[in-house]
Amino acid sequence: MVRVPACADSGRCRCSPLPPSRRRRERGRGCIDEVDAGEGRRSPPRRGARPLQGVTCAVFDREIEETTEIVAAPAEVWWQLTDFAGYPDWNPFIVSVRGDLEVGARVGVTLKPEGMPPVVMRPRLLAVRPERELRWRGSLGVPNLFDGEHAFIIDPLAADRVRFIQRERFSGLFVPGALALIGDNTVAGFRAMNQALRRRCEAMHARAEAARSERRADDLS
User: Fold this and answer.
1) What range defines the domain where residue 45 resides?
2) Pairwise CA distance, residues 98 & 108, whole Å
3) Which of 26, 160, 170, 214 is the one with CA 20 to 30 A from 44?
């Protein structure tokens, strides 16, 4: 899934000619408000605005999403997702997470995209909703150049089945070039992690079901 600002499609935007320190993009139709670039909010067109030749929009958005269904209860998936100490045992993409599971806290995250050296980040946790969502936001280098908001969503489908969604929204000046280089590796990493999580949760669920069946049998005997 890829989202592109309207001005990026046309190759022109109606941005202000002011220097970057004062510039507020999105004055014209389809541009992105640089002051709020992380949110990518659209501003209403300025009356009488005219396109400025040679000025291009400096902020881009892209979104990557991979989904899988897991035969396990939401609590079981949440347990594995937030058991950071166990990541080295099963997670091929996010090989390490260190820190407190609290909104506003920074965590140390080590990514290992397929075919690439490890990437270390210090994102801030934005959402910790037990059995529903874990989300953080971080930057590589200077903020607003290559930022990412990473979300893990547990969507219950039944008592023992969920849809697991892993999604990242990238924003910043370097997004098109960076994703041209690492986009495929990132998608492969999402898929590998989703499938590894599915196998681990379903094995845990099967063991729990077998134990419950054994206890029921003992109670009947």
Assistant:
1) 1-58
2) 5
3) 170
115: how many CB neighbours lie within 10 A of its CB? Answer: 10
Query: Token pair for residue 152?
Result: 């893990």
* Sequence-ordered strand ranges (E) for 71-174: 94-98, 108-111, 119-121, 124-129, 133-139, 147-158, 161-172
Burial class (CB in 10 A: 0-12, 13-18, 19+), 74: buried
Residues 112, 95 contacting (CB under 8 angstroms)? yes
Q: Are 51 and 12 in contact (CB under 8 A)?
A: yes
Band (pLDDT 50/70/90 cuts) for residue 73 is very high
Residue type for position 161? R
Going by C-alpha positions, the residue among 14, 87, 98, 26 that lies closest to residue 54 is 14
Do 89 and 164 sit in the same domain of this protein?
Answer: yes
Distance CA(161)–CA(199), nearest Å, equals 13
**Confidence at residue 216, expressed as pLDDT on a 0 to 100 scale:** 78
How far apart (Å, rounded) are the C-alpha atoms in residues 98 and 198?
22
Where residue 183 sits, what CATH number does that domain have? 3.30.530.20
